[in-house]
Predict the structure.
Amino acid sequence: MALKNKTSTLSERKRESIIKNATILFRKKGFGASSMDEISHAAKVSKRTLYNHFPTKKILFREIAK
């Protein structure tokens, strides 16, 4: 059970890192000029992890705009 809690916490931290770094990139470069590759690199997560949390850049942007 403890392993499951650590995993979900790690997943939540990765999600927050994606949102934080995407926000920075969108503000700096704009939505259109920011790529999912750049966001995954800045957030220090794999592209697969990024796409697991946010299947499209538009969905990621919507989450940030909430």
Observations:
- Residues 2-29 form the longest helix (28 residues).
